[in-house]
Design brief:
This protein is of the alpha/beta class and 284 residues long. The protein has a domain of 194 residues: Vaccinia Virus protein VP39 (Rossmann fold, 3-Layer(aba) Sandwich), CATH 3.40.50.150. Strands 3-2-1-4-5-9-6 form a 7-stranded mixed β-sheet, with helices on both faces. Strand 1, helix 4 and strand 2 form a beta-alpha-beta unit. Helix 1 packs antiparallel against helix 11 and helix 2 packs across helix 10. The protein starts with 7 loop residues before the first helix and ends with a strand. The N terminus is likely disordered.
């Protein structure tokens, strides 16, 4: 696995970006299309679908559970977890919070299809900042959703206030290197920095919580991006940098592709590391 550190290409990319215009942002529909294309060339989601239902149930109390998922998307990661938690008839109240209405509807349909009579599902189509739980939860998770919060510290405090003593907060967030650095450099942003795994860990540690982290290794197949960045690979490249890449200058595009080429895993040309850090904090 290559060293995940700034390379010559990344340094040159920073210089090229400094001399270029800000790229156009992704519209809502464009974001959805690019996200689907991106997930299709990564094996990370499959890893999360296996890791969460395997590792989390033993860490939770026996008996009924209350679970809050924040930024649940279409529920593809939540469904295996919900099924595992509700196994053997355990009563589970599972709430999914998702700001995009179409994705929230998909979450509701996917979890309703589970064969789990003791599972009660609530879908909240709205912002996490506006949500107040009626009862404290045993588990709250953020899978790829903390990047976009306006204030990371306030978001975590809001989450911790809704967890019972002994409850778990789980955050699955990508580290800044090797890929989020491209989003930081090239995305037009939304008024605040991109929160990455390092930021999450630092915020939780500052609150003196019992915290442990594990890095799950995955791969992202960028052969289509590298061979056809203007065509078949454009959707994936758009999501990777968080912007419309059709507006990139030639120099910026060349340095992005050079950086991605350098990242390739040994013996797997065009496939780059796609790690995610899973951080678990227990409320005292």
């Amino acid at each position: 696995m290559p060293t995940l550190s700034p390379s010559t290409s990344l340094h040159r990319l920073r210089q090229a970006v400094a001399d270029s215009s800000v790229l156009p942002e992704l519209s809502g529909p464009r974001y959805a299309r690019t996200h689907a294309a991106y997930e299709a060339v990564s094996d990370q989601r499959a890893g999360l679908q296996a890791w969460l239902p395997r590792e989390l149930p033993p860490l939770l109390v026996t008996g009924p559970l209350r679970v809050l998922g924040v930024g649940v998307g279409d529920g593809s990661v939540d469904a295996p977890l919900a099924a595992a938690l509700a196994a053997d008839g355990r009563r589970v109240d599972y709430t999914g919070i998702e700001p995009h209405a179409a994705s929230a509807a998909g979450f509701a349909v996917r979890l309703a299809a589970l064969d789990a009579d003791a599972l009660t599902v609530t879908t909240v189509a709205g912002a996490f900042a506006d949500y107040e739980a009626a009862e404290l939860a045993d588990l709250m998770h953020f899978v790829h959703s903390l990047y976009y919060m306006a204030d990371l510290g306030s978001t975590l405090d809001h989450a911790l206030a809704m967890l019972r003593p002994g409850g778990l907060l789980v955050a699955a967030t990508a580290p800044r290197q090797p890929l989020c650095v491209l989003t930081e450099l090239l995305s037009p942003g939304n008024g605040h920095r991109l929160w990455c795994a390092e930021d999450v860990t630092a915020e939780l540690a500052a609150r003196r919580l019992e915290v442990r982290s594990e890095t799950m290794v995955a791969g992202l197949d960028l052969r289509g991006v590298l061979s056809d960045p203007y065509g078949a690979g454009e959707l994936v490249l758009d999501f990777l940098v968080g912007a419309r890449t059709a507006a990139m200058t030639v120099e910026v595009r060349e340095q992005v592709l050079a950086y991605l080429t350098e990242l390739a895993l040994p013996g797997r040309p065009g496939v780059v590391p796609h790690p995610i850090d899973i951080t678990i904090a227990r409320v005292p």
